[in-house]
Hints:
Blueprint: H1 4-8, E1 49-52, E2 58-60, H2 67-76, E3 83-85, E4 92-94, H3 97-107, H4 149-164, H5 170-185, H6 205-210, H7 238-246, H8 273-286, E5 318-324, H9 327-333, E6 339-344, E7 350-355, E8 359-364, E9 370-375, E10 384-389, E11 397-402, E12 407-412, H10 418-434, E13 444-447, E14 463-469, E15 477-482, E16 488-493, E17 498-502, E18 507-509, E19 526-529, E20 535-539, E21 544-548, E22 553-558, E23 565-570, E24 576-581, E25 585-590, E26 599-601, E27 608-613, E28 619-624, E29 629-635, E30 645-652, E31 668-673, E32 680-684, E33 688-693
Antiparallel strand pairs: 1-2, 3-4, 5-33, 6-7, 7-8, 8-9, 10-11, 11-12, 12-14, 13-14, 15-16, 16-17, 17-18, 19-20, 20-21, 21-22, 23-24, 24-25, 25-26, 27-28, 28-29, 29-30, 31-32, 32-33
Amino acid sequence: ALAMSDIKKQPIESPLTAPDEYDYDSSDDEDIRNTVGNVPMHWYTKYPHIGYDTEGRKLMKPDTGDQLDDFMAKMDDPEYWRTVIDPKTGQRIVLCDEDVQLVKNIVRGRVPDPNVDPYEDHTDWFTSDTMATPVTAHPPSKSSFVPSKWERLRVGRMVHAIKMGWMLTGEQRAEARRQREAAARGDNANRFYDIWDRQAGDEDEAIRRKLPYIRPPKKAPPTHYESYNPPEEYLFDDEELEKWRNQEDYERRVNFVPTKYAALRRVPAYPGYTSELYERCQDLHLAARVVRHRVSMDPEDLLPKLPAPRDLRPFPHLRVLQYLAWPEEAQDSQQPLPITACSVDPSGQWFAASGAGGRLAVFELTTGYRAWSAQLESASEGGLVSATWNPCADRPCIAAGGAGSGRVYLVATDRCDRLLASRFAEAWATTSGEQQQQQQSAAIWTILSTEASANGAAITKSRTLATVQLPTAQGGVKQLAWHRQGDYFLTVSDSGSLLVHRLTTRSSQSPLGGAGKKAATAAVCCAQFDPVKPVLYVAEKARIQVYDLAKLTKLKTLKPNARALSCLSVHPTGCHLLAGSLDSRLAWFDLDLACTPYKQLRIHTDGVRQCVVHPSLPLSASVSDDGSCLVLHSRVYADLLENPLLVPVKRLRGHQVGSVGGSGIVRVTACDFHPRLPWLVTGGSDGRIVFYSS
């Protein structure tokens, strides 16, 4: 192989003339030369590849970007005006100054090569006079009088091909042409043959041993119905004849009407002879001509062997409590407001619930006692769509997002360890006095005092600490999710924008702006933090992007085979992911195995609204618009060679149409597990909260 320095020293006849790709060989792994050959490139316009290599593998087209990338390159790249695309390889090539000058000369109608003078003096090297001696004194070449060796070898190969029948002579081609013309005229004498004629001389001995002769199926023998003089009981009366005529062909017992004649000579021609002969030929043509042994198998053997649900206990299956979250609003409006989110605190004693009416409340999990309630937003603004408890016990606060206002409310509560609540309040007050609003924050933080947030928190010391106003162009809040350390939380807006907020610095930023060279351009449906690694999972409409927050790079793209993703939940080990979609699918990903789902479940009849994985037990749950909550046993083994065990164990239907509300199917909209016990709490569109235990 030539070195790159030797290639650069080779003379170039024209600035636009590239060296022949077969003149040198390169061992570089990044060699992107196109070896598809001299074929029209427009054949591959509608395909993602540009041709095939010598081994038959597809040569994929390089990523040329979309219109937005082209517009950004046009604005930022100073060399954009002199960049062209190679039609052979699809690569972008930046023209040098000599190439640009050559193109300009061609456009202006000048000589392309600037070194050529079209007006130089003509030198007459030859004369028009006849000379006695030749111009050159070279001796004649040897090939002019010696027979060619290569022509002799070529003629020999052609003679051998004619003898073997690979090449047709003129007479053979004429005979083949005459046969084609005879076939076109309708001479079908040689076109039809007996497919069951398997005599010894017709086929090779090896083929006859491999495919043994099978006799054609016999025609059924005639019955009394087909006799020209059948008995009286075989003849049709008027009622049977009318019934036979009204039936379809496949419903008739016989396909003809039995008729009685006095003598055989009086029998006329059978009208169905042609159709029956045609059906007989079809039966012979479609009949199997090889012996196929039928496999007898029990269908139950094809189903996977799953353990019984009673062997997978404990899991929530008993409905312990069921009550309305806001009964006073249900009495005023005669229709309960839907529950939009449920979240259990790290201690497991309390849980928070938000409603479409804009009210946030804290309940005791085991008794249903409402300890605190506040009206954060009005129903005209869209209410609250998400409420999540901080997973860190040292920061006892709740984050709630408004659907229409685009605000995130940070509410501190003392419904936990009072010492931790007081420490968090002191730390918040200290940092609030020292911290200044950052100029480059993507959202506006507003620190509220106790008096400014006393809109319903009079019975307890719970209060709203701050509000985070998202940009107006992003719309309302769609989803909230906390980091495991409790200092960061993310928000997904209705426009598909993703922001990450930090409590200690009161700042907000967009993580996808610097995650790799190309950020996610599709709208974000939901997102989750990894509980172990600095990884962010971002779900778009039909795919899941995995980003490394430490290196600001994209790790992989998961393909859940779904049309509209709606929710995500990460396993506590960080090695598995559960995704739900609005096309009633659940996808379980083994992140160390592949980018496609390890198992896909279609156990709901309507869209999945939320899915959650238990933080300490092998349990998972999903709620759907079909009014049910499905509990799965999802065990992940420490042995990497053992596949996860996913078994649906219980379908909970605690949300039903009650005395308050309308009729029809009640949608289950939210669910959450107890942090340590097999307990589950769900909320539905009927305004009820249901608590399940084992």
